[in-house]
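yo, MFS transporter is done. seq:
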Amino acid sequence: MSDSPRRLPVPLPLIIAAGCVVAAITFGTRSTFGLFTLPMTEDLGLTRETYGMAMAIQNLAWGIAQPFAGGIADRYGTARTLAFGAVLYALGMVLMAYSDTGAMLNLTAGLLIGVGIAVASFGVVMAAFGRVVSPQKRSTVFGIATAASSMGQFLFAPLGQAFINAFGWQSALIYLGALVLLVVPLSSLLRGRSESQPGEADIGFMTALSQALGHNSYRLLVIGFFVCGFHLAFINVHMPAYLVQCGLSPEVGSWSIAVIGLFNVVGSLASGYLGGRLPKQMLLASIYFTRAVAIGIFLLLPVTEATAYVFSAAMGLLWLSTVPLTAGLVALFFGTRYLGMLYGLAFLSHQIGSFIGVWLGGFVFDVTGSYSLVWYLGILLGLGSAIIHLPIREASAPAMLARPAE
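structure:
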């Protein structure tokens, strides 16, 4: 594979800046949904499980749509894909504001927003970054994109709470939806589609998919990414309500989510930097193991503002730090021609974990009045994922390399 990226229609710094803003807006908006748990369920008379199911469907729809969104961007271009996704995302936000039943929430907050996030997500942005930077710089640039997503979480969590306090939850959803539409003009700076690079085999879509699914290290990576989704979705949606249950204010919940986002800027940048210098699979194993330890310590300590913020800071360092490493391994295994699709398939596993984490959190709370069982399950899954990553081999898949001319 060539060390020099091909000539670009837009300067590289502008591409990276636009992609980072897109990632910040789309992920930042999505991170506010946990703040709506209490006001929407109390105002509409819904259960936590009902709201959790809508969020679970959102995560699952996001995951199912992500490989298709990545494949469409690979083939038809990033700009049109992102713009369409942003419109769909914003429409879902507006319709969610007028959804007063579980079925309507499943359709709007669940299906519509989930697909919109997939089509306008940082997964598509990272595929665009992957094709314009050299292999040596990919992990770092993926870390920058992930850090931008986290900065969006830091900015949008308190902004979302401020909108709710000032205007009510319905208007807050509409205003946040309007902000998502900023992605449409920004997407034009990310135009372009993936092509086979020097050293990569020029194979078909289905052949690439089949060979990827037959690659043992890729399969282990996909399985491990499930746990990342479980942790993130459960904490993002249910921790604000959990902290209120423990006697803290809703503002502590919103700032806890913001602290996660702020510290994940550091975690993502560090992960991207280290991923270019240390074995990625060992870094991933360390991240999952440390998550399990952090959750265990949090459960042993009294829940106060201080422990909530310290736990949020620790989880923030580990939050999306898995993403540049996972995307970097996918690009290393298979090249960039089908990076959007193959990373999207790994992300589907992540979102299946998200679906289970969000739904199970609501279900367990409604049945037991506590989130404890899900916290303990999160510890066990973190330890299991750490073990799964150890056998992964950090090397290109031979079938994806170009054959020398005879």
